Amino acid sequence: MTSNSTRYILRETLNSMKRNPGLSIASVLTVMVSLVILGFSVFFLANASNMAKSFESQLEIAAFVQISTTPKELEGLKTQIQGMDGVASVTVVSKDQALTDFGKTMGGSQSNILADLGGTNPFPDKLTVKATDPQKVIALADTVSALPGVDKVRYGQGFVDKLLSFTQWLRWIGLGVVAAFSIAAIVLISINVKMNVFSRRREIQIMKLVGASNSFVRWPFLIEGMVLGLVGGAIAAGIVGMGYNWITIYVQSSLTFLPVVQNGILFRQVCVGLLLAGMAMGAIGSGFSLQKFLKT
What we know:
By secondary structure, the protein is of the alpha+beta class. It contains ten helices and four strands, in the order ααβαβααβαβαααα.
């Protein structure tokens, strides 16, 4: 492509946007609205996954050992469980520690609680086991319960199944939201670009009649689509960035129990992604919409 052709293409791109300000603004707004929805849906997916991980990280197995178990046997049991596949950590909670923790929840001291219990500590030693994968909690609990010296195992039977099912659905819902709004964004942009190209079909036909090549006709539209997409993506990135920042501050001050994703890298990736997505959508939409007019 010569320098004259490049100048002509750039000049035609600028003139086209000046001649059709209404369609140019409509294209920018379409890209902006589509990408704003898409950007927020990406953050929704990130927070849904983060919430699921937060719930799953709290799952643990409480293995209560038999009263007759000696400290040496307790350590051996801990070592045995640590060597199992799928075990992230094993923590020993002695009967004295359990009594102290119980006293704190009841608002009294260990000595007072012990006196109220008749001078006998009823709590057994306990091993708190965390799994590397929440999906392995049930199977791991069954394996631990079968070990010699383990009296009983508790891991929230019944609740764990429901929690894992809920977190799985949470992830699928997040993916579904992103997919749905991605498709909606592509459809909206495609319709708008087709309207833009259709309004200029006579211009394209005249250029073809005087011998212009397909690439010569296509480039002004592609560059125009990329510029308009970039502008729409930049506005969308600003709206999504400021909007998500406001939502984060509000949730942290009003709904402190909800975990919110605050990842600077993810934030920058989403904003840059919106800019690139805007350019790509504008260029691809223009390219596809031109096909029927460029057929010879």
